[in-house]
Amino acid sequence: MTQAVILGAGMTSFGKHVGRPLGDLGAEAVSAAVESAGVDLSDIEAVVCGNVLGGMLPGQRVLREFGMSDIPVTNVENACASGGTALHHAVRMVEHGEAECVLALGVEILSVLGSGLLPQDPGDVEVLQGINLPASYALRARRYMHDYGLTPEQLALIPVKSHQNAASNPYAQFRQPWSVEDVMNSKMISDPLTLFMCCPNSDGAAAVVVTSDARARRHTLHPVFVTASVLVSGHFNPVRDLKVPETTVTARDKAYQVAGVAPHDLDLIECHDPFAIAELLYYEVFGIAEPGRGVDLLLEGATKLGGRIPVNPSGGLLARGHPLGATGIAQVAEAFWQLRGEAGARQIDSPRTALTHVTGGGISGYDNGACTVHIFTT
Amino acid sequence: MDFTEALVEPIGELYSYTVVRLGRPEIPAPYAIGVADFPDSVRVVARILDWEDGLAIGQAVVASTAPADEARGDARSDLRLRALGARSTIGGEAPR
Predict the structure, then answer these.
(1) Interface check A165 vs B, CB under 8 A
(2) Furthest-apart CA pair in chain B: how many Å?
(3) Where are any strands of DSSP class E within A97-142?
(4) Is A371 designated active site?
(5) Contact, A8 vs A216, CB < 8 A?
(6) CB contact, 8 Å: B27 with chain A?
(7) In chain A, whose CA is at the least distance from the CA of B35?
(8) Shortest CA distance from B39: residue in chain A
């Protein structure tokens, strides 16, 4: 099997790009990724595009900006895991020798929805009862707080940390500092989650160039290897411990096994933090904290930039922003820049191993419907 | 596997809950949603009636149906949990 490498990465700023066509936004990320990789657009043999709410043929609408034609373009939708899913299939194409140079793209425009709730299946049995995405995470948070004694103010430390990290990320939607008081005083959405504990609806695009090890060595002395690319769906388990994100547990086990890494090998994590409680749960799933003790990492400052294991150095979904289909690719862009020493003011000291993770949820009876975990090494 | 109809023992226990302040137009906010566990591994996720006096994990709840003005004639959307709070206690002991 061919070893897959991330050769280049690019993204737009995340935030509001009101009125900008999806194709134009995506093209900005593609141009940046191709330039970063040092390849020509004509070298791209296939494209996989992650998008959730953009309508038909998003990948082709982006490529039309360049007049690219005839190459295979596959559009994938896996809710918030769409970007990670696009990368997974791009990596598989390279690993299996179907193509030597594949573009994984994510693009999403949510400003058209305003700032409200994301649409879900209106016939879903829990949606019929009034469950929405913030509520589903609020139920997890409430039980976690009950079982482990976590306070709302401690929960607020997550967005405070994320904003601190995002302050030095020019691509982030929210770069201003927030205090615990700011977070606690923001509007209650679904208790205990306040507005500032919820990610924004964002516009944005991100792209990475995936190629073979052999080809990468013609372009760079510092290849970023894809050492694990795992995609799983959830399983039906309605009577589950809401503190255990079991879809991610399954993906973690596979990824750690394939990559041959343990939690102490990780130098940075970009994880799926649409709501503050999620990041805490993932500290525990990825093994950097014991169950119930994720808060210790925050109190110690371990997961902020400069800490011993930065989590969401980009600011994550809470502060960088969350354009659904683009998020999973933007995480990889962050990992790529960090591993190549190109992360500027937020550069982590000599990282060698990075993990990225997205999940897509919203089906009752399932922890999540889709999850990808990627591990990258230098 | 999917959700099934089940005969539910009358008294369950609140596993988790939230009061939704930002909802969709179909259901006027605020409203409370609970996850409740009943005997024989039956879990119910439904809106909670009479939540305004406060809710607590471990609190006793009963399975109920929507009041007439909310009923849609669909068992899935008409299912409710009723919190047994200060106004209604079991065995004379108020839940936490």
Answers:
(1) no
(2) 40
(3) 101-109
(4) no
(5) no
(6) yes
(7) A139
(8) A239
CB-based contact B45 A130, cutoff 8 Å: no
SS3 call for A248? helix
* Omega within 30 of 0 (cis) for the link into A192: yes
- CB B24 to CB A187 under 8 A? no
Question: Do residues A266 and A377 make contact, with C-beta atoms less than 8 angstroms apart?
Answer: no
pTM to 2 decimal places: 0.95
Round to whole Å and give the CA distance between A183 and A194. 7
Q: Could you tell me the CA-to-CA distances from A105 to A125, A141, A205, A206, B36 in Å, in that order?
A: 33, 32, 7, 6, 41
> Considering only alpha carbons, which residue of chain B is nearest residue A116?
B22
Written as tens digits, the pLDDT of chain A (378 aa) is: 999 999 999 999 999 999 999 999 999 999 999 999 999 999 999 999 999 999 999 999 999 999 988 999 999 999 999 999 999 999 999 999 999 999 999 999 999 888 789 989 988 989 999 999 999 999 999 999 999 999 999 999 999 999 999 999 999 999 999 999 999 999 999 999 999 999 999 999 999 999 999 999 999 999 999 999 999 999 999 999 999 999 999 999 999 999 999 999 999 999 999 999 999 999 999 999 999 999 999 999 999 999 999 999 999 999 999 999 999 999 999 999 999 999 999 999 999 999 999 999 889 999 999 999 999 999
Task: State the catalytic residue, choosing from A17, A322, A357, A374.
Answer: A322
C-alpha span between A250 and A373 (Å, rounded): 10
Structure ipTM: 0.93
- Strand runs (DSSP E) across chain A, as ranges? 4-11, 46-50, 73-76, 101-109, 188-190, 193-194, 203-212, 224-232, 268-270, 353-360, 370-377
Task: Classify residue B48 by its DSSP letter.
Answer: E
Catalytic residue among A17, A49, A80, A88: A80
Beta-carbon contacts below 8 Å between A and B: 84
Pairwise CB contact (< 8 Å): A128 & B43: no
A142 touches chain B (CB under 8 A): yes
A301 touches chain B (CB under 8 A): no
Strand partners, B44: B36
